[in-house]
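Technical annex B. To support the medicinal chemistry partners, we prepared a structural model of the target in complex with flavin-adenine dinucleotide, based solely on the information shown next.
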Amino acid sequence: MGGACTSAGALIHLQTDFLIIGSGIAALRAAVELAGAGDVLILTKSEPAEGNTGYAQGGIAAAVAPDDAPALHAADTIGAGAGLCDEPAVRVLVEEGPRYVRELIDWGTAFDRQPDGSLSLAREGAHSVRRVLHARDATGREIGGVLGRRTAAQTGLRMVSHALACALVTEHGRCCGVLFLTEQGEAGRVDAAATLMATGGAGQVYAETTNPEVTTGDGVRMAFAAGAAVADLEFVQFHPTVLDVPGAPRFLLSEALRGEGAQLVNAAGDRFMVREDPLGELAPRDRVARAIVRERERTGHAVFLSLQHLGADAVHARFPLISDACRRAGLDLARDRIPVSPAAHYVMGGVAADLDGHTSVPGLFAAGEVACTAVHGANRLASNSLLEGLVFGARAGAAMRAWDRDTSGWRGPEGIDLASIQPDNKRRESLTMTMRDVQRLMWRNVALFREAGALGHAAAELEAAWLGLPDGAPVSIDGARHASLVTVAFLMARAALRREESRGTHFRVDCPQRDDHVWRKHCGDVLMQP
Ligand code: FAD
Ligand code: SIN
């Protein structure tokens, strides 16, 4: 199929062989894999670099050091994942990861190096060795830039930015493309033989998050509405250390700071993590995040990151972006104690996908943070997410090539009711809950510490809001954002209510024990009864 574009009135009609929704690491790596296989169209809802990838700080984990091995990386990943990692997925991640990372280096990625030219590797929480490649504290920007330049030069690939995918198009149970809305108020449709959902995470579901505005969980909403299986949505990772200065943005303070020796102290200067956990500040994220909240409650005061015992010049040189963010908040990263608290950071659950990105809907693939391969289990190991996007993005691209070959001759859907997505001022989005209401409710009731009463209340309110959403595809950008937050929040609350145990990031104060007998399993369709 050619890369045709026609316009009927306000409706834009695009055709492509391969459609990729999103422009983060998973999307771009999949696009590279599709080079030469046919026309590739990338649809992305904001500026191309806007997404979690562009903000990634600490780095990308891969067993490339002489003292490391994929088996060790696998053991750390599985340890952090609290009994729920899919082991074949972990093996793919850690065994294929080093090859894809070396390829990134060959393509020009400038990871930091030691004076002798060898890679400089960082340590992060729950890693048993130094294995995190980084470009100071802007690793995602560096990798995204390299992949962006590579795909920009790719024949047959075009990118349409500021175009928000609002609903998948399916016919006879098969995905045939997507409906989209532009910021100029136009609506359109893309017909595609294979579609990759690479829309990233859903941090915006919470009032406090490290994630940028684009992370509203659109991919999970669209896939779920199209009948795709979703899984493990009760597992949301809260990053322990986010700048907590009133009036200043909630800027992430990378775990790599603690890897370089930063300490967590209470107002009295006591290193509380040392008594809380044998791994101290480098315990898995879920344990550090909960310990910070408990310490704040116990003492009634803020908790701080302290780098005062480290060399100031080295700190500023290694962490320039974080130093700047602290400076803008009136603090010196190296000299001051920096107030921190947790915020929503990463969603382990998502659109259920196999190791090649196939979802339960034929023609629809998923990779990156939007997908759930269960590679992270109940708690993602630090710096495994960029690696996930790279490895599973490439694999999904390869599977899409194969899918196209298997289905040659297919020419797109017929009989789609385009009128349903024409912008129509008479249609109003249901606003039984505003987006802010959703974010606050999720932060209050479905965050670090959970219990049945609060979860039940949240699930009931969100269910009412979800049932009140208008039928069909959203007709405005705000409507799409609202529908995504309501839907994803509802699915998360229901999933959290159903899992009556504590595991990884999912901590139920009313069932504080891990229960492998009943709950060592992945939970899918949350609309079934708990
Ligand atoms: P993203 O990079 O988020 O890309 C999603 C894309 O989809 C964006 O382009 C977005 O605009 C687009 N999109 C979304 N919805 C739509 C729609 N409806 N229509 C069209 N386009 C859409 N992980 C690590 O491994 N190491 C780190 O050091 C690290 N640091 C992090 C620091 C921060 C501050 C944050 C927020 C995350 C960090 N993570 C890190 C996590 C990691 O960055 C992400 O999980 C990963 O980049 C996700 O990649 P992705 O390609 O799946 O999604
Ligand atoms: C960080 O730099 O702390 C974020 C790393 C990650 O999310 O894996």
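Notes passed to the chemistry partners:
The chain has 16 helices and 18 strands.
Residues 408-429 have pLDDT under 50 and may be disordered.
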